[in-house]
Design brief:
145 residues; mainly alpha; 2 strands
Length: 145
């Protein structure tokens, strides 16, 4: 499961669809509707908050907006809680963003090399999904490196 902190516009079509499907699975886990993936490290940042279903709903909406921009249709009816105003963003560290950029670059180099140029090279920071707010720091402790 990969729930990218990076903005979804960096993802190729396969990556965007995979992120949508994996985020729907994360929503199911956070809602207690499946026993698989309950301890997946990517879920820590959602589970540690008082409003995990609101947060994953906002995350899914961000993916759906990117899908709309590309002419795809992601079924918003699958989002359990629509995003609400005033939702506190999740922090993501600069180290985590750098790690995710490197991880995505390796994937894109193989499956969609034309998209590699879309990701800014260091030291330029990549844009984040709208749910996240950038803070200084190393790779997140929940990340499997």
């Amino acid at each position: 499961m990969r729930i990218w902190s990076l903005h979804p516009w960096y993802l190729d079509s396969k990556g965007l669809v995979a992120c949508w499907r994996e985020s729907l699975l994360a929503q199911k886990v956070l809602d207690g509707k499946t026993t698989g993936y309950r301890n997946h490290p990517q879920l820590v940042r959602f589970r540690d908050r008082s409003d995990p279903l609101d947060l994953i709903g906002a995350y899914l909406e961000g993916l759906a907006l990117e899908a709309d921009a590309r002419g795809y249709h992601f079924n918003r009816g699958l989002i359990l809680r629509a995003p609400t105003a005033g939702l506190q963003p999740l922090d993501v560290t600069t180290g985590q963003l750098d790690h995710e950029r490197d991880h995505l670059l390796a994937k894109l180099a193989v499956r969609a090399p034309e998209r590699v140029a879309a990701l800014p090279a260091p030291p330029e920071p990549p844009d984040t999904h709208t749910l996240f707010s950038v803070v200084p720091g190393p790779v997140e402790t929940w990340e499997v490196v």
